[in-house]
Write a structure and sequence with these properties.
- The structure is a single chain.
- With 198 residues, the protein is of the alpha+beta class.
- It folds into two domains: 7-147, no CATH class; 149-198.
- The chain is built from two helices and ten strands, in the order ββββαββββββα.
- The strands form two sheets. The protein has a six-stranded antiparallel β-sheet with strand order 2-1-3-8-5-4, covered by helices on one side. Strands 6-7-9-10 form a four-stranded mixed β-sheet, with no helix packed on it.
- It is elongated and about 100 Å long.
Length: 198
């Protein structure tokens, strides 16, 4: 049986995560350690349906509400650590108009700290303002970006829609240019000599 620990840090207050169902404000962050092995993963959760599936997959039972029209949830699971005491924090969330860039960092236990002698999977979840742009994650100390599969699909779909739109605009421009040339030819043919510059 996997034991779960969670702590909700309402900035700047610290409150237990599940007392009553409440709508979480942006910036709300939950941290903890899942007991036992687990995959290193990043998540971008945009709907109540995705949230329900996420909670079921992680075997979490949190009685919280997220305003999905205004907000979304991002999460980082570090994967297996050999002891307790490890933490992960989301240190920055930036939207540059193209992507939401989430930066996180791992904090190891301090030297000589008393820690659980069992495998753990540290995680952090954070409520952020919803955005149509895809979410990209990166570790503060490494330059490699991580993109959840759903966000990758969102990026590809956006590029395809942009390409399709540009192709349509090019066709419109080609037709307009052709029509202008036809009108210029007709104007030259029907105008008195010298009236229309060539």
């Amino acid at each position: 049986m996997r034991i779960r620990f969670a702590l909700l840090a309402l900035l700047p207050l610290v409150t237990p995560f599940a007392v009553t169902a409440q709508t979480l404000p942006p910036g709300t962050q939950a941290q903890g350690e899942l007991a036992g092995p687990g995959k290193a993963e990043v998540f971008a959760i945009r709907t109540a349906d995705e949230w329900s599936r996420f909670l079921a997959a992680q075997r979490l039972n949190w009685n919280v509400q997220v305003n999905w029209t205004r907000d979304m949830v991002v999460g980082v699971f570090l994967g297996v650590r050999n002891t307790g005491g490890y933490k992960v924090e989301i240190t920055d969330v930036q939207n540059n108009g193209l992507v939401n860039h989430v930066t996180y960092t791992e904090i190891p236990p301090g030297a000589g700290a008393m820690v659980t002698q069992a495998m753990t999977n540290p995680y952090v979840l954070r409520v952020i303002e919803a955005s149509a742009q895809p979410v990209v994650f990166s570790h503060r100390h490494f330059s490699t970006a991580q993109v959840p599969y759903g966000e990758y699909v969102r990026m590809i779909k956006g590029m395809s829609e942009t390409q399709y739109s540009l192709t349509g605009e090019r066709r419109k421009n080609d037709r307009a240019q052709q029509r202008i040339e036809e009108l210029e030819t007709m104007l030259r043919q029907t105008s008195p000599a010298g009236a229309v510059p060539r």
